[in-house]
Amino acid sequence: MTEQQLPVWADPAVSPADLDAQGVSRRQLLCRAGLFGAAFALGGAAAPAVAATGRGFGGDDPRLAYLVGDHHVHSVYSHDAKYTFSQQAQAAATYGLDWMVFNEHSNFGHASYGAELEHQEILEARAENPRQLIFQGLEWYIPAAEHCTVFAAPGPNEVGLLTQFELAYDGKLLGYTDGAPDNANTARNEAHAVKAVQWLAEQRRTGYVDDVLVLANHPLRLGIDSPHEMRNWRDAAPEIMIGMEGAPGAQGAAIPGWRGSTSIRGEYENKPSANSFAGYPADAYLTYGGFDWATATVGGLWDSMLAEGRLFSVTTNSDNHRTVFDTWKNGDWPAGQNFDNTGRLPDPVNTDTPQPGSDFWPGEFSRTHVGVTRYGYRAVMAGLRAGRVWLDHGHLLDGLDVRLKRDCDLGRGVTLGGRLRVRKGDRITLYVTVTTASRANPRGILPRLAHVDVIRGAVRGPVTDRDSWRAPDTKVVQTKDVSGRTGTYTLRIPLIAGDESFYVRLRGSDGNRHGAGYLGASVDPHGPIPHEPGNGDPWADTWFYANPVFVDVEGR
Predict the structure, then answer these.
(1) Max CA pair span of the chain
(2) Is 290 exposed, middle or buried (0-12, 13-18, 19+ CB in 10 A)?
(3) How confident is the model over 394-410, as pLDDT tens digits?
(4) In a 10 Å sphere around its CB, with 0-12 CB exposed, 13-18 middle and 19+ buried, how is residue 313 labelled?
(5) Which residues does residue 474 pair with via DSSP β-bridges, in sequence order?
(6) What span, in angstroms and rounded, lies between the C-alpha atoms of 221 and 237?
(7) Is 476 helix (H, G, I), strand (E, B) or coil?
(8) N or C: which end of the chain has fewer CB within 10 A?
(9) Does pLDDT of 108 surpass 60?
């Protein structure tokens, strides 16, 4: 693998005069974290969180820099996509991505031919784009369920891992797609999905690959990822199956006048099928402010998993197949060739006429921010595993730093994905440092954050009903009006540790579209709402979400 270079915004050899406004902003955040230059290239304070006192209470997580990425990008090695590696990587660089995952769809053409050919192009793409971290991955058809991103750290066995996994565990290749509760194959298929996650964990444990991660993609698009399946995958290897897309790709699907009057952001335009989980309401098949119902519903499925006291992260990404308003079309097949016998589409051809599409380029609209202490592939994967993740649409924010600490402690406290150990009755403060957008986004809009919502939920331990999607003790407990505030500022939000453990998480938006949350105004008074079919301009309804911080309460 070619030598990595720091991103332009993080490279001290690049003058600030050569950076755009957002690059300057990101560099300032990096310097504030004490990770500029060699400290970032070689690794800063990378030790795990340690207790602030000898008794083990409190916490002191390291200072972090946030790398921007996308774990769901397709190329000519997916049967239904269009672009070359070079086109995707160049677009990602244009829109400021530091890392990206090419996760091609499973099929026999890919397993037999495409994965190896793709790897050679991955190596070339890494050489052409030394300031980007480019992962090779796979979009796994989960037996009895939807899709997942599977990706490994670069190394001699990254292709071998993905190909072995595809042939042995892919639901589409095996014909293990049945998931209806009354189907005789469902139990076998669901068990095979669990075995798949466990197999990946074994490959990491034995050192066959340095690291591997799995994230569920567009979980409620078809309603076939039941709550018990998601819990089963997580429990099989929580260090491998780390979370799900909080917001899907295809965010351009409902731009007015583009795809049609019935279009919904994310292409969430489906109805329940025989394989769908019957416990989901019809409204679960929609997006809310562009986010999946499982994430957007305060007190819903994501919260029900967090209320067990276990981390389960959310992300967002482009799922780029075909970009909105793009003028490229798929090239023509040579005689006798097809995807099954080549594993690769012909290169696209420019038509100079807009072509059908629902997606944005990687980094153009959807961004996942991962907190790291150094720059590198394994650092990104470690940050994802630790849950040091926040996400935004429309370049709503330049930066977000979250710390939770006891008022009696002197350390930095714990951050996203972390755990703060406290005594009953302890006073604690949530510090939310916001850096507002410093430049117009790719749509030409200078985004403005209007509010920050603090969401709190009780931690009650494992659920009895593994198909539960409700967390009845989770709700919005505070909303901070930040309209008109610019630059970098810190919100200080006091909390008190009560009788039981809990978690807090954050959400906010540009304030353009609000309504009572899905479970009512008493739970979420001004949450994201669905748009009218065909009238879902994504740039006019942008949100950020952040992973939780857990508080473990012990008696005095």
Answers:
(1) 77
(2) buried
(3) 999 999 999 999 999 98
(4) buried
(5) 457
(6) 24
(7) strand
(8) C
(9) yes
**Nearest of 379, 368, 418, 376 to residue 46 by alpha carbon:** 379
Could you tell me which of 300, 240, 218, 238 has the C-alpha nearest to residue 473? 300
The single-letter code of the amino acid at 462 is: P
Using the 8-state DSSP alphabet, how is residue 444 labeled? Answer: S
Between 5-9, 43-47, 271-275, the lowest mean confidence (pLDDT) is in 43-47
pLDDT, tens digit, 9 for 90 and up, residues 319-369:
999 999 999 999 999 999 999 999 999 999 999 999 999 999 999 999 999
Q: Is 530 helix (H, G, I), strand (E, B) or coil?
A: coil
Q: What's the rounded Cα separation, in Å, for the pair 145 and 199?
A: 18
Mean pLDDT of the chain: 95
**Residue corresponding to tokens 């540009």:** 510
User: What is the band of 3 on the pLDDT scale with cuts at 50, 70, 90?
Assistant: low
Angle at 341 between CA 338 and CA 347, to 5 degrees: 50
Tens digits of per-residue pLDDT, 41-88?
A: 876 443 333 333 335 788 899 999 999 999 999 999 999 999 999 999
DSSP3 helix / strand / coil % (the chain, rounded to 5):
25, 25, 50
Mean local confidence (pLDDT), 146-175: 97
Question: What does the block give as tokens for 556?
Answer: 């005095």
Residue 209 contacts residue 170 (beta carbons within 8 Å): no
| Degrees, nearest 5: CA angle 270-274-276 | 60
pTM: 0.97
Confirm if 317 and 359 have CB atoms less than 8 A apart: no
Q: Which residue has the tokens 């006429």?
A: 353
Residue 376 amino acid letter: G
Separation CA 82–CA 136 (nearest Å):
17
Task: Centre a 10 Å sphere on the Cβ of residue 547 and count the other Cβ atoms it contains.
Answer: 27
Token representation of residue 78: 């997916």
Strand partners, 433: 401, 490
* Host H or E run for residue 159: helix 158-169
For 499-538, letters b (16+ CB in 10 Å) and e give: eebbbbbbbbbbbebbeebbbeeebbbbbbbbbeebebbb
